[in-house]
Amino acid sequence: MIHPFDDPRVIAGQRTAALELLEDYSDIEVIIVPVSGEGLLSGTSIAAKGVRPGITLYGPEPLIADDAARSLRTRRLVVDIVGSTIANRLRATLSERTFRILCTHLRDIITVTEEAIIGATKEMWQRMNTNHQVPCR
Length: 137
Known about the structure:
CATH topology: Rossmann fold
Structural class: mainly alpha
Helix content: 40-55%
Number of strands: 3
CATH class: Alpha Beta
Largest sheet: 3 strands, parallel
Radius of gyration: 16 Å
Number of domains: 1
CATH architecture: 3-Layer(aba) Sandwich
Order of helices and strands: HEHEHHEH
Distance between the termini: 47 Å
Shape: globular
Strand content: 5-15%
């Protein structure tokens, strides 16, 4: 059995997204990756800091489910049952492994309200639908 985020192989595999991003956009100074169980953010932070030590990494997290933000703030792993959020895929909790990685590499975790998540989602969909329409033939 391979854990979905608390496994070194998963974390190593997730780092490829950051490596590809940095390869395509060499001038990136900040990377923002959503907070959940942290396989993706852990892999991203290891890869990004390995390639560009001065890069800044943030993890946005729903305010309702802010266990990772509280963990980083107190430097102690908080494993709470988190509340219901519109971003329900981000409701996993950190593991000891991912928490240690984030403490080492992450600048901060930014908490966002449900209203902000909804607004950003609407804006993203509006931009995607406006800017990337493919005509039917």
